[in-house]
């Protein structure tokens, strides 16, 4: 936004356009985790991120179409904001690829999470096309990229049973 500042000059008004910074608060929609479809996809995304962190010893956060996301403070904040927007706007329904690699939406015990096969973070391009298998069987923890037609079947795989895990002693 520019602000016009004018002063009387020898031959009339002399005006200067001065940039003005305006701070505005913009409300962003929240993520509706009461929607079973959204919750299932969010759990699947969380599971993939947990497995990425375990496999990479905390170095890799996520696997997206644009590549892997490191687990630096800046990239975690940026990735969280992007993922939150994808869920809040339900953009994943039209383009599930925007979420990158996910896992099945099952209960995961954080202290016993498995690493990716071969202890190697999957490449997005290797996983693309490995959408939900025929019949919706997502067992085995294989990485996948959802297609819009998979969402209803994926939702039905949601496991909300309680989980227990032990915190490391340094957190107690």
Any descriptors?
172 residues; two-stranded antiparallel sheet; two-stranded antiparallel ribbon; 15% strand
What summary fits the major beta sheet? 2 strands, antiparallel
Domains counted in the coordinates: how many? 1
Helix vs. strand class: alpha+beta
Total helical elements: 4
Beta-strand proportion:
5-15%
Can you describe what's shown?
Strands 1-2 form a two-stranded antiparallel ribbon. Strands 3-4 form a two-stranded antiparallel ribbon. It has four helices and four strands, in the order E-E-H-E-E-H-H-H. The protein starts with a strand and ends in a 17-residue tail after the last helix. It is of the alpha+beta class. It has helices spanning 36-55, 73-88, 124-127, 151-155; strands spanning 2-9, 12-19, 60-64, 67-70. The chain has one domain (36-161). Strand 3 and strand 4 (67-70) form a beta hairpin.
